[in-house]
Amino acid sequence: MKRDEALHKTEQIICNDRENQYGSPEQSHTDIAALWTTYLNSKYKQHITLTATDAALMMILFKMARTFNGNTEDTYLDMVGYAAISAELASSKNELPCLHQWQHVSTERKPDGVTTMTSKCMRCGKIATDSLNDKPIET
Ligand SMILES: [Zn+2]
User: Fold this and answer.
1) pLDDT tens sequence across 49-58
2) How much distance in Å is there from the Cα of 87 to the middle of ligand 1?
3) Angstrom distance (rounded) from CA 118 to CA 132
4) If you measure from the C-alpha of residue 15 to the centroid of ligand 1, how many angstroms do you get, rounded to a whole number?
5) Cα dihedral 92, 93, 98, 99 sign
6) Domain edges within the chain
């Protein structure tokens, strides 16, 4: 199977067949995450919270384990589908890390020789500072 064929087949499966059969992937993975969270916390006395994205990613692991004992085309298509669902869930829930795009905001030089430069990410608004001591080191 060619990769474009795998993508097209997977699109048909996850955007039509499975959605009609099981409802929205967001709701089903939210439900799976809630059940797995309850199971893990009850069994192992932990306080974790799995997200819908975690559930979708862990379904890829489940499918990957299946490849260890026999490969079927469907297993790979399922992994492609869960990857697409994971990407959609992560981006819709702001779980993707920002690829910061820094813009210089200000530079402040103090009498002790320390210069502090402040930058702001134009995507997420995070502020970062970097200090430089430009006072000569006495030897
Ligand atoms: Zn950012």
Assistant:
1) 999 999 999 9
2) 18
3) 12
4) 31
5) negative
6) 3-92, 102-133
